[in-house]
Each structure stands twice: as C-alpha cells, then as structure tokens.
Fold this protein.
Amino acid sequence: MYKQYKRLASIPLPIDVTEKKDQLRELLVSRCSYREFSGKPISTKQLSNLLYYSAGLVRPDRRPYPFAGKWPSLEIYLWIRKGGDIKRGVYHYDPATHSLEVLLQPVVIEDAQDIWMGQEWQMKAAIIGFVTAVYVPIMSRYGPWGAPFPLIEAGHFMQNVYLLCPPLGLGCCSIGRFRESEVIRFLDLDPHEEYPVYYFALESL
C-alpha cells in the first residue's frame, strides 16, 4: 500500500538506467531480507569487515553513518549462536579498538529462551544482533527533541548492514521484536541508561 493523491496532478520522474555498472545502485535494487537460516557460521574476516564498515571508526571520531552532534548513541551486541572462528557467546563491539569484548561464554540456553516472540526462522541464525541506545548524552544535550535520534541512527546503521552483507557473502534480516525485558536481563543492561532499539539475524551464505 502506498499513499497516493489520485485527484491531483502528478509529474512522472525518469529512472536513469545506464549501461555503466554502479555497485551501489545494484545493491540498493537487490537489497532483501534473508530468512532461510541454517546456522552456517560467519568467519572472523566476514564479521570484522561487516562491523568495521557498518559501525566502526572509519575516520577519527566518525562512524560510517550520521548521528546527532558528536554523540553516537548506539551500542552493538552479538550473540554468536553457531561459532566458527569465534566461540559461541555474547559479545560487545568496541569500535575504538575494533574488537569484540567477551561478555558471556558460553550461553546457557535457558538464559535466553524467553527473549523469543515466535518467528522460528530467526532461531536458526548463526548470530543474533542487538542494537541498544544510550540515551543520557543525547537527552542531556537535546532534551525531549533528542528522543527519536537514536532510532534514526539505528536505521542508518542497519541500512549499512543490509548493503554490506551481499558482497561479504552474508545473509541478514531485521527482527521486528523481542521481549525487551528479557533482552535487558540477558545483556545485563540498565534500562534507565541503555535500551534495546533494533534486532537482526545474520549468517554466512
């Protein structure tokens, strides 16, 4: 469904289809959500490139997506469920050192069983990603106007992930919802300072 003003005049816009190859345009057109997960592990090299070019410090104090002011608000956690080069466990991505910090190893399945809300396909993925927002700096600077900023930032980050996955040989899919209270417990977050805003599934193709 698309909103249209049928009763009003409209101006048709041309689509520039050229013979010259444009990788970005090809990636945008072919972007898709992958749901045929089988648990194929992701290599360290694949994961490193994905994290660096989607959320790393590609320039001093600059990430590859826009954020409000000088305060990027996102934190990225990975639950590696099917380990390859990296053991199974829960990790936090540190962009300052481009490294994974070990939070929990191994994961007792009972500790995470209550986060799911149906959609069995996501339970087969090699990696589940959790994106959280640290609201305190943003709200201190912008007040109530800053509330949407981390959500916008998360959308920018996830578009990077979607565009990077195909050339890296990865499949990804956004996840609509988990039980937030269980995610907070699972990641040991303080919900007054940091709150889950986005989830995604990953694996190697």
